[in-house]
Structure formats: structure tokens, C-alpha cells
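In response to reviewer comment 3 from the previous cycle, which asked for concrete evidence that the modeling workflow produces usable outputs, we include below a single protein chain processed end to end. The sequence was submitted unchanged, and the resulting C-alpha cells are shown without manual editing.
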Amino acid sequence: MPFPMACIAKQGPGCRGLMGKSCRASAAALAFLSSPVAPAGAAQDMPGLTLAALTATHPQARGGMMAPVRVAQSVSVAPAGQEGIRLAARLEEGGGLIERPVRWRLFRLEEGERSLVRDAAAPVLAHRLAPGDYLVEARYGLRTARQVVSLAAGERRDVVFVLNVGALRAITTVGRSNVTTAPVEHRILRRLPDGELQPITRSRTPGEIVRLPAGRYVVESVFLNGNVRTRNEVLVKPGRLHSLAVRALAGVVEIATERDAWQLRARDGGWRLKGRGRARLVLAPGAYIWRAGARERVLRVRADSLLRLGGAGR
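The workflow returned the following C-alpha cells.
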């Protein structure tokens, strides 16, 4: 089915390299593919069971990383000995049930202790249980939420977590040439209410989809071979995939020597790098000193430039 698209950001020179140079970024949001929408909190019929009543929607479950989680429970009649629970989750309020596997952990609570009853990954999990109190843990991507559920005799409960989860992916290239062969690490940090940044996760796989609680995040793109680092802020909304395309205004230096040792440093001091043999570096625009053997050369790196160097400083 086609995905509706909505623009969420046009981010310009607000991201900076280590040496003060800017980059460009743009982002778009795509709606998640989900199952047909069912009303939030609605009871889901189970074979052989008769709907008896709906419980109130819990205002908030205990969830990690600050974004709110809601949990709806419905109860239906079950014959004696067939009591149980069925677990499902939604990305957002009013959205369809999640069709990808959710990590479910179910604990029995008794006399202040908890014991693991079930640990499984599935979109929907149904399990027969003896009456009592249970702790349900749902984990989807970087979101973890927990809820205590009480199961009475003759009951079957449907428990639906509304996780308020979105997704983010980033691809970072170099300038107009869109060079993607340079290794990049994407670091995702959450913007806290006090403005501080909390590291969340990192990835070296281009375009990897990271599922995380809705909120405001900063994506750092760090070129592992060189001195270029960019930052872009993204508002992640529940039920949406946000794609961030970053173009770093930087140059590429290719070192073609096979075995010779070499050194490269910024002419104004600070950044420096030593190596041996072939390398491909992404550098912020500026002047650098290149040394290989007894020879030395001044390099002027510009945005979108490509410089090739031999083993003797040629």
C-alpha cells in the first residue's frame, strides 16, 4: 500500500563541523504500515469467550525514557481453568496493532517476589494463567514499558499497550558528490526538558531504522576517518518513520601509498592524524600539512573537493 508523506523539517546551516563548517540536511516523515485501525481500548474477542465488561483505560504505564505510555485492559468470561491473558501493542493512540514482533516478558507476583512465566517475541501473545497478579513487560525497539495486571477467577484479559513509538533513520554523505563509502557513525541523543542531551544509541549501518519513544532528538553524524562531525535536531512523532538525509560540506582526501607512513595535521594546530598505507579521509574545509617521508606539502581542502596523494607527498 502507498505511504502518505509529510514534510517535517528543512534543516539548513544549523549543523556544524568540528572546524566550524556547516552542512545541509533535510528530513521527511513516512507513515508506518500497520494493521486496520481499531478503537483504542476496545475489547478483542477470543474464540469461545463472551464479552462481559470493559475495564478503565489506565492513564499511564511505567515506561522508560520519559515518553508516556497508555495501557487499555478489557475483560471477558472464561471457563474455570482457562483463565489467561492476551497482549498486544500499538504505536500510537488510535493506530492499528503492531505487526512486527514485540518482546514480551510476563512475571508472576507473589509475596513480594516475582518469577518469570513467559519470555517471547511476537506481535500478539496469548497465554493461559492461573488467577493472580502479574507484571507485564513490553519491549519494542528502544521503548520498554511495564504494567501490573490482576487476573481474577473466570476472567480472560486483553491488555493493549499504546507505546507512543516512532522511528528514525539517517544517511550521511559528503557534499554534492553524495559520497557514501566513507564510514559514518550516527549517534542519537535525546533532548531532555532541561535542554541537556542524553546519549541513547549509536549505529554504523547506513539507513538503519531505530525505533524509539516519541520526542525530540539530536542526531550526530561522525565520520570515523577524518575530522567532520554534524548535528541535526529531529522531532520524532509516534507512528511515523523520520528519514534524515545529511550532506556534510567537506572534502575527501585519498591516500594512495601502499606501505609508507604519513602524517596529516591542521595548519592552525589541534587536529592531527597518523597512518600507514592507503586511506580515505573526510576533512572539514581548511589548510592542512601533509608529510610522508622527508617531504611536506600544504593541502587546501574545500567543500566537495577530492585530493589524491601518493606515498612521497606527490
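The chain has no helices and 26 strands. We consider this sufficient to address the reviewer's concern, and the full set will be provided in the supplementary archive.
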